[in-house]
Amino acid sequence: MDNQLLDFLDYIRTEKGLSPNTVEAYGRDLHLLREFLQGKRWQETTPETILSFLSHLRERSYASSSICRILVTAKVFFRFLKKEGAISVDLGRYFETPKVWQLIPEVLSLEEVNELLAQPKTDDPVGSRDKAILELLYATGMRVSELCQLRICDLNDTFVKVLGKGKKERVIPVGKQAIDAVDQYLSRFRTHSGDENGPLFLSSRGKPINRLLVWERIKGYARSAGIEKEVSPHTLRHSFATHLLENGADLRLIQDMLGHEDIGTTDRYTHVTGKRLKSAFESFHPRP
């Protein structure tokens, strides 16, 4: 399996929060396309190549539903390659398919968030770092890739400066608990770091953290907290947005904090809160 494909699977697992079964299915679909290309690079793929590939699948008696799913996988993959600068044109735009990644992953309750954030033991460097990471992810709703890029100078007592998609900067307010967790990590375990432009979070080997490390740590803490839901860094992002909306925050403000260009992307959270309100109504109202 080539490096770009491995990077993509890592991306959808750690940043998009897709389940292991879904990641495995994406890998199988792209392996079929990789075999069809017979050694050609992804950069050499054209819309005509994709059409030939789909015809090839039909000739092999693949069901229409399977072909549609494989096409969705290819669209997502080529969108990723375009975003990473590996190809110059997003091939997926030539093919109409149902929207992908429009389902909101499971959102944690406030009790589950508190239990998750209580798991790291802050008396050692790794635990203190992980506590700061968890607090910051939930406090800001930032993407895990954005967290991994943070420098010490990007954070002050009230705001964090984030470099988002398209190299666009945004400023997100940060609560006291997250600031205190970061301050404890820096003051106790990063006392020799005088470079304000250096990375905020380091691995145990002194290297900048990556999204896979964060994903693995969060999965471990979710297990130790007894949370049965599928939890990833993206789960904290979705929980952040949903909890804000449930407590009356304006959708436009949430859009700005999440870094969504399209309000329609943020509007998905209204469906989640709407379902919760309906469920609560049916559970507690005397005449539902």
Question: Can you tell me about this structure?
Answer:
The longest helix is centred in the first third of the chain and has 20 residues, at 64-83. With 288 residues, the protein is mainly α. The chain folds into two domains: 3-94, Tyrosine recombinase, N-terminal domain (DNA polymerase, domain 1), CATH 1.10.150.130; 110-280, hpI Integrase, Chain A, CATH 1.10.443.10. It has a two-stranded antiparallel ribbon with strand order 1-2. Helix content is 57%, strand content 3%. It has 13 helices and two strands. The chain starts with a helix and ends with a helix. Strand 1 and strand 2 form a beta hairpin.
The averaged pLDDT comes out at 84
Radius of gyration: 21 Å
Number of strands: 2
Span from first to last CA? 54 Å
Broad shape:
elongated
Ordered list of secondary-structure elements with their pairings:
Layout: H1 3-14, H2 20-37, H3 47-59, H4 64-83, H5 110-117, H6 125-140, H7 144-148, E1 159-163, E2 169-173, H8 176-189, H9 211-224, H10 233-246, H11 251-258, H12 263-266, H13 268-284
Antiparallel strand pairs: 1-2
Helix pairs in contact: 1-2, 1-9, 2-4, 6-8, 6-10, 10-13
Question: What's the gist of this structure?
Answer:
57% of the residues lie in helices and 3% in strands.
Please name the defining characteristics of this protein.
hpI Integrase, Chain A, DNA polymerase, domain 1, 288 residues, 2 domains, 57% helix, two-stranded antiparallel sheet, mainly alpha, 3% strand
